Amino acid sequence: QWPSGLRLPSHRVLADAIQVARQTLALAIGTLLEEQLLTTAHGQGTW
After folding, report:
1. Domain range enclosing 35
2. How many domains in the chain?
3. In-domain check, residue 16
4. What are the residue ranges of helices labelled H in the chain?
5. Whole-model pTM?
6. How far apart are alpha carbons 4 and 1 in whole angstroms?
């Protein structure tokens, strides 16, 4: 679980930390964005 309002690390860092492929991580983040569980701002990150 990730605290609300805390920016996620970069995809590369997060994928390495949880030992998944970056594409797998990107798909999971995409799903969470669609479900409005995460938000993103171009060039600023994902929360």
Report:
1. 11-40
2. 1
3. yes
4. 11-18, 22-34
5. 0.82
6. 9
Q: Return the structure tokens found at 2.
A: 């990730």
| 22-40 exposure pattern, b = at least 16 Cβ within 10 A, e = fewer | eeebeeebeeeeeeeebee
In the numeric block, which tokens belong to residue 27?
Answer: 């798909």
Q: Write down the pLDDT at residue 29.
A: 95
Tokens of 23: 């594409």
Helix, strand or coil, per DSSP, at residue 11: helix
Instruction: Give residue-wise pLDDT tens across range 3-37.
Output: 888 999 999 999 999 999 999 999 999 999 999 99
Indicate whether 6 belongs to any domain. Answer: no
Helix 22-34 with 11-18: angle, nearest 10 deg = 110
Q: Are 23 and 14 in contact (CB under 8 A)?
A: no
